[in-house]
Amino acid sequence: EFDKLSNEGMLFTRMFSTGSRTNRGMSGTLLSFPAIPRFESIFKDLSINQEFSSLANVLKQRNYSSNFIFSGDLKYDNMEGFLSTQGYDKFYGDEQYTEDAFSTSWGVSDEDLFKRSLQILSNEQEPFFSTILTISNHPPYLFPEDSPFDRVEITKNRNRLNAFKYSDWALGNFISEFKKLSLYDRTIFVILGDHGFISDDFDQNTSIELASYHIPCLILAPGFKQTINERITGQVDIIPTILDLLGGFFTHHSWGTSMLNNMEEKTDFAIMVPSGMNHIVGMVQNNTFLIYNFL
């Protein structure tokens, strides 16, 4: 389904996450703030007591409201606690779902999450900004058995790959249902991963293996045509790109740049940091992957 949607928007084939855990990906995407070597995620750092140029904060300059929709416990990783200080107005978590919703230890399935999201978004007063965080392609890789998608039959990583296919199906179904709303023609969708494919052969907290940071990113927007963007980009570039799409003047502080501007490609780079308390940072630029150890 993601491949089909890629025919309707701009696909970024060289996008990289800032870190190897969800909280790092969220700070990069929603705040344009990178992961920092030797430090915990700012979501969990109690010494952080300041407002960032989060997208929720920046869009308040144009009277956007904002909400955060999750399938599980909003207290996990201090998501609600931190984001409530960064401009988010409303939060929807596990209390939103009925007892018959399929769920794991992390929360309800993607299709239940998207179903509730459709209800919430169709009743929001415009303009608004919404963040939806899915979990079905996360261990333990469980999903409703009656979901109508073609399963992977290979033996190795079967559960994991089928969970990915399930998430893909649920996303496609969500966009298909959203297209039935008049809201669709006035909406920008940014669909991306929080981090890359974490192989069992590498430690999520210490590895600088590039595949752990290479993520899909697709933007669907009114008037967009099928485009493949091969520039090197990172999650910190998301906010400047959205503001570029919206047009006009915004005051913001970002570590990134618009992925739609006319800068020469040779200046593009992406920085990533393993999510543990370590001393390593990586940078991708042109066809080079640089790794620096602060020790």
Written description of the protein model:
The protein has 295 residues and is an alpha/beta fold. It is built from seven helices and eleven strands. β9 (269-272) and β10 form a beta hairpin. The model has no long low-confidence stretch (mean pLDDT 91).
Strand content: 15-25%
| Share of helix, binned | 10-25%
Shape: globular
> Can you tell me the residue ranges where pLDDT is under 50 for at least 5 consecutive residues?
none
Strand count, sense and barrel status of the largest sheet are: 5 strands, mixed
Radius of gyration: 19 Å
Round the mean pLDDT to the nearest integer and report it. 91
Number of strands: 11
List the total number of helices: 7
Structural class: alpha/beta
Q: Whole-Å distance between the termini?
A: 44 Å
Question: Could you give the order of the helices and strands?
Answer: HEHHEHEHEHEEEEHEEE
Condensed summary:
This protein has 295 residues and is an alpha/beta fold.
Q: Descriptors for this entry?
A:
single chain; about 300 residues; alpha/beta; 3-stranded parallel sheet; globular
Write the layout of secondary structure elements.
Layout: H1 2-6, E1 10-16, H2 22-31, H3 55-59, E2 65-70, H4 79-83, E3 90-92, H5 110-122, E4 128-133, H6 158-178, E5 189-192, E6 214-220, E7 227-229, E8 233-234, H7 238-246, E9 269-272, E10 280-285, E11 288-293
